[in-house]
Amino acid sequence: MRLLALVLLLATQALAFPRVGLHENFTRLVFDLPPSASYEMSTEGQTLALRFRGVKAEALDESVNSDQVASYQVVVSGAVVEVFVRLKAGMRVQSSVLEDQQSKRLIVDITPEEARADPSPQPKPAPAKSPPKPAQPKLVVVIDPGHGGRDPGAVGLCTGITEKLITLDVSRRMERYLEAQGVQVVLTRSGDTYPTLDDRAQMADSKKNLFISVHVNSSQGCPGQAQGIETYYFGELLNPSLLEQVIRENGGGAVGQQLTRVARSAAQRAASDILAQLNLRFSRELAYTVQRRLVQATGAVDRGVQQAPFYVLRNARIPAILVEIGFANHATEGRRLADPAYRETIARAMGQAVTSFLGVGSVAQR
Ligand SMILES: [Zn+2]
């Protein structure tokens, strides 16, 4: 019996794909492969992608949350097994293969960029007395203050709140906070101008790490009844009552309707695109991180995280969200939004959520 238990134990261990080892300064992923298996490996932004042929694995979605790795996902599609690993900020990937006639083992180590210890015996240039530390690649966050210029966004006539002014002020406060944490910030607008939604979306390219669009909500009437904070990631419209809001945030009127149609078909396409799905999963994770932090810091009503076809988010290949930080036309919330101290609280909470999501704190501690 004991032997059987041992065999079963070994069998289960062998089934784990990958096996994950947490070490003091690195996370190790071990892939046990048949000798005939092949694989490719690539990194884009903070995602490490591995594509295997000739292996058997089960679909998985696992949180790791080590200092180096946030999570990984195993996607099985026919004969191909793909593993997507979301790395924390500033990580490097090293791999090696151990091989004999019966088996092949791929070992992938994820270490902080600054702990670069190059074990390969390559000839090196004459060593300086104190070798300079490799510079930490700077994280870049795109902040999009909603509306601007000819487009005021939501206007609370009874509260005196104009969305475009609030979104710009909160975004600039968040910029100051993040820059102080060593994160580079790109604003889609820094004054009262109107970049098109395409201009804004284009700034969320894969050289950036994250995109966050800041908006203020509104409801019927003034004062209106609705209040609270909600955060969105991109996806199909599951809740039809959001359609009016989505059209408004997509530019309003005929333009808003047209762009909403485009965004909805992009959402349908994304549903069958593995990379887009993976990015949406990260975006959802970011949305929950931001939403939690905002509600905690402000005590505002928690309207939750939802998905919706916001045009500005539709092509993002980096985690991208849209945050509605409150209602312009709610009597109490409108008054709070008018208060610079409250806007600072909101900006900091979003900034903290962003640094925590990107793993900035854990890198800085080293
Ligand atoms: Zn808006």
From TrEMBL:
Span of domain MurNAc-LAA: 201-355
SUPFAM superfamilies hit by this protein: Zn-dependent exopeptidases
One GO MF term: N-acetylmuramoyl-L-alanine amidase activity
CC per GO annotation: outer membrane-bounded periplasmic space
One Gene Ontology term from the biological process aspect of the record: peptidoglycan catabolic process
Entry EC no(s): 3.5.1.28
Biased composition annotated in UniProt, kind: Pro residues: 120-135
First-level EC class: hydrolase
Residue ranges of the region described as Disordered: 112-136
Residues annotated as signal peptide: 1-16
Keyword vocabulary terms for this entry: Hydrolase, Signal
PANTHER family: N-ACETYLMURAMOYL-L-ALANINE AMIDASE (PTHR30404), N-ACETYLMURAMOYL-L-ALANINE AMIDASE AMIC (PTHR30404:SF0)
UniProt name for this protein: N-acetylmuramoyl-L-alanine amidase LytC
Species: Calidithermus roseus
